[in-house]
Amino acid sequence: MSRRSGILEFAVLGLLRESPMHGYELRKRLNTSLGVFRAFSYGSLYPCLKTLVQQGWLAEEQGTGREDPRAAPLTNRRARIVYRLTAEGKERFEELLGQTGPDAWEDEHFGVRFAFFGQTSRDVRMRVLEGRRSRLEERLAKMRASMARTREKLDAYTLELQRHGMESVEREVRWLNELIESEREGRDQRDQRGAGGGGDPRGPDPSDDFTP
């Protein structure tokens, strides 16, 4: 499976975990909620859905007839099919949600992973955020070194473009630092409640988790 199709699989399972959807609605959510998929077409989505059904992670059901009228260009068969996450599909999504390897830090995959941080454990969120920050710091160091070597050879516009790219990476690093600090503060507050003996005897409040 390619990296890009793996991202799509993760996003589809995550969205269908919220509620069953038909293909048009699912594509609309991918486009509006996860901007990285704006370039995806039905030609990419339906093979993914077919594969997930074959794997047993999704089930096809007949729709209620309330599909969005803008889905008219689709065939009637497709317009009626609603996709639902199976128990095995939920397990698969949980497995993917817990992965924190380098793919989770890359540009496209990180944006999708971040969109599902509300369903992700704090420890996993921290590892993904710290991995992303480390990757960007490496990129920033290379950009600075490259600019130092070529500064005298570049015209003003090319140099300005490189500066703009560096500033964009620097902004994201600052943003990640803020997120990581928020996660750490939330953990410290929860730990202090538990250590002080004055916390809620029912356990930590899930609302204490940072939700971007």
UniProtKB/TrEMBL annotation:
Alphabetical UniProt keywords: Coiled coil
Keyword Transmembrane listed: no
One Pfam family linked to the record: PadR
Segments forming a coiled coil: 126-160
Start-end of Basic and acidic residues biased regions: 181-193
Region (Disordered): 181-212
Domain Transcription regulator PadR N-terminal: 12-95
Keyword flag Coiled coil: yes
Protein name, UniProt field: PadR family transcriptional regulator
Organism (species): Streptomyces boetiae
Taxonomic lineage of the native organism: Bacteria, Bacillati, Actinomycetota, Actinomycetes, Kitasatosporales
